[in-house]
């Protein structure tokens, strides 16, 4: 049988490098793998986890506000039991200004969230059904605006009253005041 391997080196050369090198696949470190896929996967997974945690936190806070505040914390276009429309006992004159149709019935800061809220009374003083869009500014003792709230009423008949609540979504000091900053009244369609 023919020998295709060179003879072993003499004993004094065994500590030296072999002249023919290391055979392929033997010894030496494997090529370094890229971590790009791992980094991208962990980044996307982390972002999804953060979004899920934020969504859960908002759900829990919203639930806590709803539970502690009762019906007033639920923003809805539909009338709620304490926000139903009722006919005012004294008729209002037709053709009043929109600003005269709106008044603030109460102003408070929620003790749990520190969010301001204004209880609004809107009486349709026009001669036909109207839609109302009211903006309320919540201001601190220096008059600086700290939050805004919006109330909308759709299809309010002449002489009827709607009781709604404008909710601010920024923290406000307990001594803040509520001010009506804009009132828009448009004829109701439908």
Topology overview:
Layout: H1 36-69, E1 86-87, E2 102-109, E3 116-123, E4 130-139, E5 145-156, E6 160-167, E7 177-187
Antiparallel strand pairs: 1-6, 2-3, 3-6, 4-5, 4-7
Quick recap:
With 190 residues, this protein is of the alpha+beta class. It has one helix and seven strands; from the N terminus they run H-E-E-E-E-E-E-E. It has a four-stranded antiparallel beta sheet with strand order 1-6-3-2, with no helix packed on it. A three-stranded antiparallel beta sheet has the order 5-4-7, with no helix packed on it.
Key terms for this structure?
190 residues; alpha+beta; four-stranded antiparallel sheet; 18% helix
What does this molecule look like?
With 190 residues, this protein is an alpha+beta fold. Helices cover 18% and strands 31% of the residues. The protein is built from 1 helix and 7 strands. The chain has one helix at residues 36-69, and strands at 86-87, 102-109, 116-123, 130-139, 145-156, 160-167, 177-187. The strands form 2 sheets. The protein has a 4-stranded antiparallel β-sheet with strand order 1-6-3-2, with no helix packed on it. Strands 5-4-7 form a 3-stranded antiparallel β-sheet, with no helix packed on it. It is rod-shaped and about 120 Å long. The termini are far apart.
């Amino acid at each position: 049988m023919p020998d295709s391997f060179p003879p072993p080196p003499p004993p004094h050369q065994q500590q030296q490098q072999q002249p023919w090198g290391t055979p392929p696949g033997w010894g030496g470190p494997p090529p370094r793998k890229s971590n790009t896929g791992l980094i991208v996967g962990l980044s996307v997974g982390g972002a999804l986890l953060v979004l899920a945690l934020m969504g859960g936190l908002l759900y829990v806070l919203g639930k806590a506000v709803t539970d502690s505040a009762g019906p007033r914390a639920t923003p809805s276009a539909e009338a709620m039991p304490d926000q139903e429309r009722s006919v005012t006992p004294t008729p209002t004159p037709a053709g009043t200004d929109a600003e005269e149709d709106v008044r603030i019935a109460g102003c408070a800061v929620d003790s749990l969230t520190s969010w301001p809220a204004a209880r609004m009374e809107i009486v349709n003083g026009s001669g036909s059904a109207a839609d109302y869009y009211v903006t309320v500014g919540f201001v601190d003792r220096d008059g600086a605006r700290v939050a805004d709230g919006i109330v909308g009423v759709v299809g309010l008949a002449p002489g009827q009253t709607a009781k709604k609540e404008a909710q601010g979504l920024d923290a406000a000091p307990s001594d803040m005041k509520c001010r009506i900053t804009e009132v828009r009244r448009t004829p109701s369609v439908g």
